[in-house]
Design a protein that fits this description.
Keywords: Magnesium, Metal-binding, Thiamine biosynthesis, Transferase. Helix content is 46%, strand content 13%. By secondary structure, it is of the alpha/beta class. The termini are far apart.
Amino acid sequence: MNQNQIDTLAQDIVRLHSHTFAPCTPQAVPVSTDPAPIYQAALRACSALGFIATDAQCLARAWQAQTERTGSLDLTHWPDTVEDFGLQTSPTVPDFAPCPPALGLYAVLPDAAWVGRMARAGVPTVQLRYKSTDTAAISAEVHAAVEAVRGTNARLFINDHWQAALAAGAYGLHLGQEDLDAMQPENLAQIRRSGLRLGVSTHGYAEMVRAHAIGPSYIALGAVFPTTLKRMTTAPQGLARLAAYARLMRHYPLVAIGGIGLEQFPAIRATGVGSIAVVRALVNAPDPEAAAAALLQAMT
């Protein structure tokens, strides 16, 4: 296949899938030494469709693997088969302790008082996202959050502070990609042995593959929509990418997160994720308990 044929193939992929992933901002095509023409065409196409370099490369490998596995090139089928991404070909028990397949409404909250308030309002999954560098304050807040959910049915995840989560006996831990970078293998092994559930944030294909390698209890997908709550290094993923991610990672409990309000719940639910995380929809609501009730209803 010559360069003109590769370019034509890339244009065909873009034409067939641009209606799904548009609007998008084209990205520079990563430099690649892989001579496989399907890989090269898919790399160009995925870059044109707005996927960042690491995700475009991940998808290009999947397009190549899909073609080799099926023995034919199907430009209409966006890769969504686990083995084409180098993942296990059958679902197994995660390396970390399992959690329910659908975590339901997932409230991300700033302190233990909010955790207790939303747990008592019936929110099934809550996360303490407490921002501090004071070790004593972190320990006190995590212990207070564990106490705050006692007597409720809420599952409590602690964001970042894994040592405090272990010491306090929390249900689970949530880590971002930067947190994973800072973790030593022996730390992850300690968390795994403890029975603490582990959730991991992802923002695209390459990070999902990375998360899969450690076998977390659930995978968070986002940011779906623009959010001002934290600085994002990737653009909002949108509903089409969320649906594609959900098809690929369907063997995991999945949590959609990022800029989601009540009005978006039906569209998010339609992608197949079993949980929706919210922040402002609760903590900025005039009546948080009433907001929780409406959001819980939208999850059914």
